[in-house]
Amino acid sequence: MATRNINLWAADGYISMPDGFSVYIWGFAPSAGARAQLPAPRIVVNQGDDVKITLVNGLPEATSIVFPGQDNVTVDDGTGPRPVGPRFDGSGNLISLTDFADYPGNPDGNPTVITYSFTAFRPGTYILESGTNPHKQVHMGLYGALVVRPADYDPGVPSRKTAYGENTGTEFDREYLLVVSEIDPELHRAVRLGQPYRIRGYKPRYWTMNGRAAPDTMFPDSAGYLPNQPYSSMIMLEKDEKVLIRYVGAGIENHPLHPHGNHTRVVALDGHLLQNGPYNLSYKRFTVLAEAGQTYDQIYTWSGIGYDQTHPIPTTVPNPRNLAVGDAGWTMWSGSPYLGEKKDIPVGVTSFNELGEYHFMLHSHEEPQITNWGEFPGGMMTMIAVYPEGTLGNAGTLE
To answer: Which CATH number is associated with domain 3-300?
Structure first.
């Protein structure tokens, strides 16, 4: 195993919403002097790695990181390593859930750089977030995700390209990470101006996947027009492939997420494989409630049910809401070879497909969460794109 040294800078910055609104955020940056990004830079390590995460604080107040699901976390502020623990002021009042990096210019002279260390002992998907004033700092954007790969992970061996290890039923062909949260612009404005804010008045107006609201969720990774929101939320696969979708609930609201095209099979919760000895406890869901602070690992696949070249009779009539209809009433895909046509798009009908792929929506089932400040469509919504076989390349790889 290896030692992984990771540096995060707590900083401020701005993100863009599709309606043109810019939101001031606090978050973690990947380098010194960089603006905060949302969510934090992804951390992907291997089971057994010794992980050292150095936090450099550039914010106007103390901040920290907690690592739910990790055991024996230690911290070093320059005086030597010690177990992490809650911090109290001189009157015994809790001021942080864990050891923190103080803010520059604090007359107390406490260090502004600290290093957290732990051994990634168990594979899975985990959240990381601020443990200092979390009711404020997590909402401002101080959150991210940690992915721990199993010790036997080998992307070149299909039986070992898994989320939880060989023979766990968690093999996958591609994987995607969706960190979901929400934004109340009034909180962000108050923090920017140094004004008070009553958390009981918290009212989100934007809902995000990987720091973006739809339709920006469907733009590619590292899009130049979203410099502080580098991660796309598009799910791309080919027919019959197994796709590992990792949900991370980073806000304080619960989000009922639903992919069209098929159910997902939930294989793990909070980094715990749903298996008891020889018994497989995974389950399929039409909608997965991504709850605040929790993580979900699930497998999604699409096999073209209802469409094949043999044209079986009788055919299954699809639900009308599952029909994909183009301009002027042209049906491009119905799920049946007899209902609608699969051919070149007629003149006057615009196609946004790249290679003839099919698109299914993945979105929140709570209607306000698929808007941008009340305007539909938007918010917590993206697409699952099923590409023709052999056309997608190596999309769907977490680094």
So the answer is: 2.60.40.420
